[in-house]
Amino acid sequence: MTAIVADVTNRAILPGRRATLRNTLLSCGLLLLALIAAVLLTSLIGSEPLPSKSSLCALLSGGRSACGLSGEQWAILFEIRLPRILLAATVGASLASAGAGYQSLLRNPLAEPYLLGISNGAAVGTMLALVFFGTVEWSRPVMAFAGALLASLVVYQLARGRTGASPERMILAGVIVTTFLSSAIVFITTLMDATRIRSFTFWLLGDLSGATSRLLLVTMIVAIVGSVLLTAFARPLNLLMLGERDAFDLGVEVGRVRIVVFLIAGLLVGTSVAASGSVGYVGLVVPHLVRLSLGSDNRITIPAAALSGALFVVVADTIARTVIAPRELPVGAITALIGAPLFIYLLRRG
């Protein structure tokens, strides 16, 4: 029976390399090295120039040695720039792994947090937390997760029909919920004064400048744990790519897998939106690029998407904070400028 399931799983995976342990470790190892290099290099780039050798020395020492940096330079590097870069990597990993999970679960390449209404649900939750519990920092991730979870439940309930919740109905329900929540966001912003409206608008387009140590820690823990848990569900997700009926016949508890994956992905999206606002196209484009490069076996797709998403947002945020320095652009605008043409290319290529 195990051999039969393995054979069917392999047939469910689209053309590309199979996820052997060696391929997975090699691919993820190279992506991890690229991510570490990007973090180190982008730490040297900003509106305030820092000495390269001294900064790299301080970074490699973990901040224990100033390596000739002045107090102001050390503060810029370790208290402003590095936390923001780490938050960018964390947000990218969360959104990309969640997008990979949604696309496999729903067997739809357009499934991603924004289109399903999950991002807007988290955004509404975060905005309510900022309006009513602005001084309580932990309220942002809690309310964001609650908003993402509520949006997920509404989408699931709207999509349910006589034969269950089909992927097509879930996409349609997600579009409806996204439209409704967008109106709710507009309504909430009209209740604010002009100064807060400007800051909220910037945040909604993706803002990584508000990184705090506690929020960064929570977001990193959720990103790591959530990505690992989604990877643990790689086998049932691979079987679901055959179709729900076939997956059920092969022993997959479709309902339980769907609920658990939605909860994990909702937690990933909720914490990332609470920390950075809505950063678009990461959960849509990055999993596509990974599947084109490494195949569609979720044992390699999900961890590789997490690392690739982290790398993508780190580069995008570096562009956002330097291209018109000392002013900044929303990181979501940069990911859209990069992601939209790339997605058009992938669409025409397919």
Would you write up a description of this structure?
With 350 residues, this protein is mainly α. Helices cover 75% and strands 1% of the residues. It contains 15 helices and two strands. Strands 1-2 form a two-stranded antiparallel sheet. A hairpin with a 2-residue loop joins β1 (160-161) and β2. α5 (118-132) packs parallel to α7 (167-190), α6 (139-159) runs antiparallel to α12 and α9 (213-232) packs antiparallel against α14 (298-322). The longest helix is centred in the N-terminal third of the chain and has 36 residues, at 71-106. The chain is globular. The two termini are 35 Å apart. Mean pLDDT is 84; it is low at 1-12.
- End-to-end Cα distance, whole Å, is 35 Å
| Coarse structural class | mainly alpha
Number of strands: 2
- How would the global form be characterised? globular
Rg for CA atoms: 20 Å
Q: Which residue ranges are poorly predicted, with pLDDT under 50 across at least 5 consecutive positions? A: 1-12
User: Total helix count?
Assistant: 15
- Oligomeric form: single chain
Write down the secondary-structure element order: HHHHHHEEHHHHHHHHH
Placed side by side, the strands forming the largest sheet appear as 1-2
| Residue share in β-strands | under 5%
* Biggest sheet architecture: 2 strands, antiparallel
Helix content: over 70%
* Average pLDDT score: 84
